[in-house]
Amino acid sequence: MSESLIREQPTVISREITENSSYPYGNIILNIGRFFFIVLALFFALFPVIWIISASFNTNGSMVTQRLIPDDVASISDLLVNYRDLFDNPQILFWRWMGNSLLVSSISTILILLITAMSAYSFSRFRFRGRRNLLLTIFLIQVFPNLLAMVALYLMLLQLGKHIPMLGLDTYGGLILIYLGGGMAMNIWLMKGFFDTIPRDIDESALVDGAAYWQSFWYLIFPLVRPILAVVGLLAFVGTFNEFLLARIILSERENWTLMVGMFSFVDGGEFSTEWGMFAAGSLVASIPIVILYLALQRFIVGGLTVGAVKG
Amino acid sequence: MIRSISDSILRIQAIPPVVTLVARLVLLAVIDVFAVQLVAALYDDGNWFLAVAVAITLLLVNVINLAPNTIPLRWMTPSLALLVLVAVYPLIYTLFVSTTNFKDGHRFTKVEAIELLEQRRFLPAGEVSYYWSPYVDEAGNYALWLVSATGGQHYFVEQGEPLQAVEPFASGDPPYTESARQFPDGLPATFEGYMLAEGPAFFQAMQALDPQSGTLKDTQFGDESSPIGISGRSEAGNYQQRWIYDEDEDVLIDRASYVEYKADLDQGLFIAPDGTSAPVDFRVPYNSSDTRRTRAEAVELLEQERYLVEGSTNYDWVAYRDEAGDYALWLQSDDRTYFAIPGQPLMEDPVLAEAPESFERYQRLNSGATMQALVDPAFKSTNFGSVLTPIFVKAQEQAGDYRQRWVYSEETETLTDLTRNKLFFPDPATGDFVAADDTTAPLGYWVNIGPENYTEVFTSTLIDGPLFQIFLWTLSFAFFSVLTAFAMGLFMAVILTDDIRGVRYIRSMLLIPWAIPGMIGILMWRGMLNGRVGVIPATMLDLFDYAPPFLTDPLWAKLSILLVNLWFAYPYFMLITSGALQSIPGTIYEAAEVDGASRWDKFWNLTLPLLLVSVGPLLIASFIFNFNNYLLIEALTEGNPRIPGTNAPPVGYTDNLMTYTYRYAFSADGTRNFGFAAAIAVMIFLMVAFLTLIQFRLTRRWEEIGENV
């Protein structure tokens, strides 16, 4: 999970918008050059996507005979052959895997939000000795890649599972436990940055009135930090949804797999080129929600990350 | 906003601190009760390492929730607990494992390795590969419709009948159905009494004929002159067994190359005259490297091993039990059958037939109960014969005078192999039981071997191993992936200025690759670059008559990895650099313009340095991420192409340190050397932690510079 979060590292850019006056307009050669590169970049970015969409609608699911525009389509139902194959295939439990992924990601996200918000509140609202060093330590410890700790984590779940079946190997509880431990530092840091932007007068006045810390946290701060909760929540959700390695090692039974582990089984079986159509159909169904979420909340994500970063 | 906040403040009812205190204590007590039980249970199992970790976590949680003046830390209780358990503990444990000889040995015996190899099939040169679609007749017999993979000729083939060339559309009865996946032209719904398997029947056929697990996987279609077997979910043809073991000569023959491999009993490999080895290796009986257990556990396991005393008979057996739970056996040797009741001599069963349902007070056990009995220590330790002719059960179909093979003496600390009357002494330096002639017992145990794994990393790096090669590739991949993605991201950010019509939509479209789940995007590319049939090589073949071996040549595979990474990563850099560019104040260019600086000068001397100030830490973060990038390599190439001569585990030219370590720790073929993998893991951690510290330093310094600008 930590890897997918690092892909969206926060920036240290201020959001100050200034007029960009350094590039004069009107140079025709320059514009033609620009146009050429933009088209090239669009082609590079979109061709794989278009090709996979086309593959999912090609009537025979093989890589060899795929045409960009399927030319042998007689009816709408022909178009959906790959989707039907995908959903009917007893080896590919597509909806089951999708459900597993949604379950694991939702629970992880809720817990991650709660845990990191509490820590961020503490880092933002209290002044204590070693505050900066503690945050730095958390960062450094989490640099140790989860994957390399895999032997230890694997054995830990094996041993825990004997006494707490919920947290054993091949359980969602065990997987979620490990997800919670990863990427925590980054999330705390992001949230703390946003918490710092909320004036301390607000909760201090409540504390003076005799409210407990948890009351000021829950009733005052929590509603005000919704934007950063949304950002961290989205990143955590997408991060765990996309996570593959830990899920692959921990979940062994086919019906327990998450969607990404299931999708990898397409190439594991060695029949990739003939199951290409089914793979394409599955890929589309799996990615569309995530892509829409990302694009719709794109500004929000970048904005949220930026606010978190400006305040060190 | 302000109103709602003051409303909220009003709504908060002051709760007496004592209530909060009591609630906290109760919660803490509940957690303590469960966690203490867990610690005790883990300790009982002998998992003292984890027990200590949980205990320390618990102590930490209690201290910060009970001590005064720890309010800030109380808020971090769940974070800190998770950090200790899921991050610190694995780190320390890995450090610990890295100083031990922890590994689980080769996984297969020689016989198993040969069996595995003998299952592999290949298509001899000159033979044709077909796509197939199943047909089924009323009796449930299968036949296949075949299309040759190269020429597109159609055939129909039944079991034991010759291949029959057919014309699609011209033969068979209409209507034609188009649902068969490999056959764009459609197939007849019925043909010569067979029906095209569709829907549920299709999946039934796929399961039955599955070449690995199907019940009918060995079905031969076609006659002797043109045998057709199924080799994949869509491929069929005259596939033949690739590896054949010649027992007399003790050699393994690869029929694809006619090379003979000799078993090397020291290394557990099948080795060809040119030094290459067969793809499956085996466990060497008296030099095993399975060291997952402590010495006591290894001894316990060895002492369970039994051997049949020379000259005595092995019996097949059926288990019986009386109401008191005592066991008895019915035994069958080649020519006789007996009843065996503990403490009594064997009674010959005069009726030479099946085991009876019951005899005397004993009832026959069904197969499930028999399996349970096999794991019941009381059953395994029962002597079903007399003192002079003991009968013990060893395993299914194995009963007789089986005696304990290994005996360990606590006093002399020696392990004796009773079959050969040989003494083995534990060697604390290597974790082996060693005999005077340097042979070792088949189980090792776990010992601390100090820095040996680290020395091995360095020697195998410097001397001959592929590790150095992999290290260089890891570094260069991380470097070039950041460089290319940053350069392209910056370039696109510069040319996508706001005056372009629809620039928002263009940016959104360019961001799509960044949003696609990594796994799926990589697999899409893997399909598009696949062999000669993926769209990119296929198009290049059409246009230029040549396509590079994208994923199978060492250099091209590395370039492909960089290309796919570029696709993923540059939108992110475009996003952040365009933000960073906008934050550079326009006024600083004015002075440069006065000085007559060219556009290039301005970019190179002003824009780029300022940009690096703000995105520098991100570049380092991205470098670290790619240094550890497991997903891209594993999903795109799985480390392939393989470096010749690497066996345990096999590694490839595109493996990076992460995938390499993973193969050492979790590889299915080869020794799983956890100790060595842990040593590499610790070294990766040190490198990455060092980079992170630099990143922190730079971030702080750059922030200061940024403020001064």
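Chain B has four domains: 17-97, 121-241, 306-404, 467-514+560-708.
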